[in-house]
Amino acid sequence: MVTAAAAPVWSVDPRTGKRREQVAVEATAAEVDAAVRAAHAARPALADRTARAALLRRAAELLDATGARVIEAADAETALGPGRLTGELARTTYQLRACADAVDEGAFLDVRIDHADPSLTPPRPDLRRHRIPLGPVAVYAASNFPLAFSVPGGDTASALAAGCPVVVKAHPDHPATSELVAALLRRAAADTGLPEGVVGLVHGFDAGVELVRHPLIAAAGFTGSVRGGRALFDAAAARPHPIPFHGELGSLNPVVVTEAAAAERAAEIGAGLAASMTLGVGQFCVKPGLVLVPEGPDGDRLLTALTAAVSDTEAGVLLDHRMRDAFVDGVRARAGLPGVEAPVTPGAGGDHTVAPGFLTLPAARLLDDPDGYALLLEECFGPVTVVLRHSGDGAVGAVLAHLPGNLTATLQLSAEEGAGTDPAGRGAHLLAEVTALAGRVVVNGWPTGVAVAPAQHHGGPYPATTSTATSVGATAIERWLRPVAYQDTPPALLPPELREENPLGLPRRVDGRPEPA
Amino acid sequence: MVTAAAAPVWSVDPRTGKRREQVAVEATAAEVDAAVRAAHAARPALADRTARAALLRRAAELLDATGARVIEAADAETALGPGRLTGELARTTYQLRACADAVDEGAFLDVRIDHADPSLTPPRPDLRRHRIPLGPVAVYAASNFPLAFSVPGGDTASALAAGCPVVVKAHPDHPATSELVAALLRRAAADTGLPEGVVGLVHGFDAGVELVRHPLIAAAGFTGSVRGGRALFDAAAARPHPIPFHGELGSLNPVVVTEAAAAERAAEIGAGLAASMTLGVGQFCVKPGLVLVPEGPDGDRLLTALTAAVSDTEAGVLLDHRMRDAFVDGVRARAGLPGVEAPVTPGAGGDHTVAPGFLTLPAARLLDDPDGYALLLEECFGPVTVVLRHSGDGAVGAVLAHLPGNLTATLQLSAEEGAGTDPAGRGAHLLAEVTALAGRVVVNGWPTGVAVAPAQHHGGPYPATTSTATSVGATAIERWLRPVAYQDTPPALLPPELREENPLGLPRRVDGRPEPA
Q: Where is this region: Disordered (chains A, B) (predicted)?
């Protein structure tokens, strides 16, 4: 058998399209296997919750301490800019520390104890249940968040918090950053007495496919495109032993502007929309991609404000040139549909940049020929949004009925609609309609900006996500666990989490009721 | 297009193999579609938690009131006997009432509120999250529980509790019982002011496949074979819009008997094993199917007791003649493997019955040729178990390493091992080993008998289940929900579950902490 030469992995400057340096080589099947085996071997060490919390906090410390270098590395290969990356680094370390706090509290263990009851028919045995780690998790890094949804990001932090080692498949848009921060995570492991195998890193498309198929991989987390995510989801489901695949794939993030809202706040909404859809050069999974704006003069004023603000927004660099080409092609295909207009034409800016813009179409045209306009209901990654001009409730409902699942849905309501005092009860009606379509509903705000908070939900009906779980917030930890119940198990053998005297001070439900703290 | 004549659905007496009556016809694709649409249309009515709880309690009342007829119908087509079916009916109504109690409490809504915090960077919006019903659920009834895991069973009860209408695919082993109890459930719906579409019923293999593929079906629950369950799981995953598929497929339910346990309790363990493996003619998904018994005189005494007890157990009727044939063939294939002995030969009893028995093999033989003995590590439905004689810890660990995932694992330990005072620490070591393999661990008891309790977990690594969820106990409700978060939503528009003043008195976490009751 002839072994092909190892394929080089290059760090590329998206501002020039030029290679910066060779960072690594793509992992062979044997290398993927070695990384997974090292992760698998690290499970017993990660079973110690105190060690897990220490690892997460040490990782945050090292990222903070190395912040300048990390931000420089990430900016060089993503062009996201030091401002955005400084915020993203803070988000990343906040997530790591929030996960450490969740580990300390232990609510995700969902401890339940039912004492034996010999008076029942049949007699009930003693049952004690908690959640245990699934095993090594494959993490697929996102292009658009080189830190917060990549090597040290939410999937990694939540998996480690759950007690699961990870093997990260690096995104080709930031391999140097990936290597740098993976080394920091491994140093954090060493500093806290854990094996370095708790965090593995592999590069390469084929390596990513090997990873999800590896028999010792127990679950996967993914943030990326519908096409790539679905292929990996299918591979996970087709395994001899299928595994949970938590993928965040794609989302249109519809916005509905009512006539009354436009009458009240046309300029504010237009400017807010422009800021949200162009933020980070439109490279957020929660970018508003479809906006229902009323016909008539108030809607026109909204578009005037949108036009002014988008026109004032500079061209920007996308994460890589393949995305730039896809954006230019995607915009061209959409703009070429009959009746579509481009008040501000999005597309190629300079040789390496793209210019933001937006497209408009009467909602009635789309409703007359939904198949012909199906492309407008697909996400287009980059600084573009599609505005459908609507004639009121009927048209809004009809358009919403055509939409796939979404991470978010946003309502722009008037004061009266928000207060529920309008005769039509429009706010409550619209809220119910968009709740069916999305995992997070935003009222009179914008979907960009996903707070890391216990009540957050970042997920939604397919294709927004492939599961009902969230990838942001403390409940993301629950993805990497499975319950196990112990029946009539002698106290001396029980894990400390399940002992009667609650030596770890965990929140728990006893005999069906929450135990007072 | 020529429409084939509707295929009849017969109720069959397994005690004679004869048809009793034609109960229904197999559902056409159009009929499946109509049932799903009726379920879908019933969603708004089920959104009312008070109505759901009333429905569940009314269903339990009607089942109790009609108990004699239900038991008679189920016995006639399953031969499970009035004693077992009386217990199963009690389990079924208990489940319905326990689900109603869970609906009243509302813990499964997992309400979380994070108040806005403008002092954070970036400022945190107000976020409020709860769980909402997924939509219509397809329930695939089990052969071996005509009530508790079928039309009015745990999947149906938990889905209705979650607010999801169901369409049940009846099992062909008890179509008359299915029609009878489905009518009771629909009457319960009518009695509580709900549309009858909250519970639909279809018959036929093809109807089952149509059901999991129907675009309006949002999730599925299944209890049955690995082959059937995997085919439906694959269909669920291959949909344009994949859906959660909670399948309970198959399990060996290994038992480990230590040398010290056999020395202390050989006769008791032998008799207990006989009772557990022959209970219900061995037709439980938690039947112990593989037992590791020590070599030597104490293990011999155990087998002597097992032999005596199994020999004293009468032949019984399986659920249908196809199962009887599969049992006879499965036992013959296993008994024919080199070195396998049959101290009590299982197989055909009379024309319509099967006789219980067990097979033995030295564990070393299996470990020398695991592929050659792979059949012994597959579930064989019916009153048979496989005893592997082991030489101690090394052999036990080696056999366990070959096992697939299981619903349960059982340890028979000595008093000293249970107390953790033996020098080898064998109890804790074995507990950790079998925890990796199973969803419920039983010590010094038997796996048959799955208590309906909040701390129960009925699930396990594949192929025991296709997800990490349980199908028994209150947490089964969580399978049919997805979270949705509301950001900066005006109080007047919020669902009552998420209002600040907590008008429904729900348990909730506020700003990251459980709120005192």
A: 488-517
Q: Do A484 and B441 touch (CB under 8 A)?
A: yes
Q: Are residues A304 and A197 in the same domain?
A: no
Name the residue facing B441 among A420, A440, A489 (closest C-beta): A489
B147 and B164 together in one domain: yes
Q: How far apart are alpha carbons B378 and B337 in whole angstroms?
A: 14
Give SS3 for A312. coil
Q: Which of A435, A490, A516 sits opposite B418 (nearest CB)?
A: A490
- pLDDT digits over B340-380, tens only? 999 999 999 989 999 999 999 999 999 999 999 999 999 99
Confidence bin at B169 (pLDDT 50/70/90): very high
Residue A3 pLDDT: 53
Per-residue pLDDT at B474: 85
B452: in domain = no
Q: Which domain holds residue A401?
A: 254-443
- Please indicate whether residue B248 is annotated as part of the active site: yes
Question: What are the two backbone dihedrals, phi and then psi, of residue A193, each rounded to the nearest 5 degrees?
Answer: 75, 20
Residues A326 and A279 in one domain: yes
DSSP state of A221: E
| Per-residue pLDDT tens digits for A329-351 | 999 999 999 999 999 999 999 89
The answer as to whether A11 is a domain residue is: no
CB spacing of A439 vs B483 below 8 angstroms? yes
Which residues in chain B have Cβ-Cβ distances shorter than 8 Å to A442? 487-488
A453 chain-B contacts, CB cut-off 8 A: 114, 124, 127
A121 vs A280, higher pLDDT: A280
What tokens appear for B267 in the block?
């006769």
- Total domains in chain A come to 2
Decide if pLDDT at A2 tops 70: no
Q: Is B285 a catalytic residue?
A: yes
How far is the C-alpha of B256 from the C-alpha of B394, rounded, in Å? 13
- Cβ neighbours of A438 (radius 10 Å): 27
ipTM entry: 0.97
Cα dihedral value A157, A158, A164, A166, nearest 10? -50
Interface-testing mutation among B403, B407, B482, B497, with chain A (most A C-beta atoms within 10 A): B482
CATH code for the domain in which residue B432 is found: 3.40.309.10
